[in-house]
Amino acid sequence: MMINFQISESLPADEIVCYKQRLVSAAQAVLHFTGSSPHSEISLVIVDDETIRGLNKQYLGNDTPTDVLSFPAEEVEPESGNPYLGDILIAFSYAKAQADAAGHAVEDELQLLVVHGVLHLLGYDHAEKADRIRMWQAQAKILNALGCPDDVIPH
Q1: For labelling alongside 44, which of 6, 12, 120, 155 has CA 20 to 30 A away?
Q2: How many other CB atoms are found less than 10 A from the CB of residue 2?
């Protein structure tokens, strides 16, 4: 799996880069769980709250920040010939605040958001009850396999 990992210039890269390997592992775990191609490519971008707020407004009509946005691509990467699944954007400050409010580590929150985002890239959704149950069950299995504490896993 190829992950194009980027950190917004407005964020403290030295604080965030230490999470990179856990986030890559989370994305790989989703691909393994779903039986997706291990050669898939994803862009994972850690952004500030204002960037994600603007994108949330532009694409979903919600003028508020959010924790994660996924933009499925379902393309083939021209240089490698590998499937390009799309982009995941995570608002670092928002995620950090959620982790603090829930009383768990920010790296666990970030793993949850990566798993959630990759599942969206693969067609999972939570708008309808049956879809939400399916997605939450997948998240729980993947996060358990990654060793995330139970308090991180949505039920």
Answers
A1: 155
A2: 14
C-beta atoms surrounding 107 within 10 Å: 17
Distance of alpha carbon 148 from alpha carbon 127, whole angstroms = 25
Q: Which residues partner with 84 through β-bridges?
A: 41, 75
Distances (CA, A) of 153 to 99, 135, 146: 12, 12, 11
Give 51-69 pLDDT, tens digit per residue: 999 999 999 999 999 999 9
Q: At what angle do helices 92-102 and 49-60 cross, to 10 degrees?
A: 100
Topology annotation, domain 2-152: Collagenase (Catalytic Domain) (3.40.390)
- pTM tops 0.85, yes or no: yes
Token pair, residue 96, equals 């950090």
Contact 144, 155 (CB under 8 A): no
Write down the pLDDT at residue 66.
95
pLDDT of 155 over the 70 cut: no
Contact between 24 and 3 under an 8 Å Cβ cutoff? The reply is: yes
Mean pLDDT of 33-50: 93
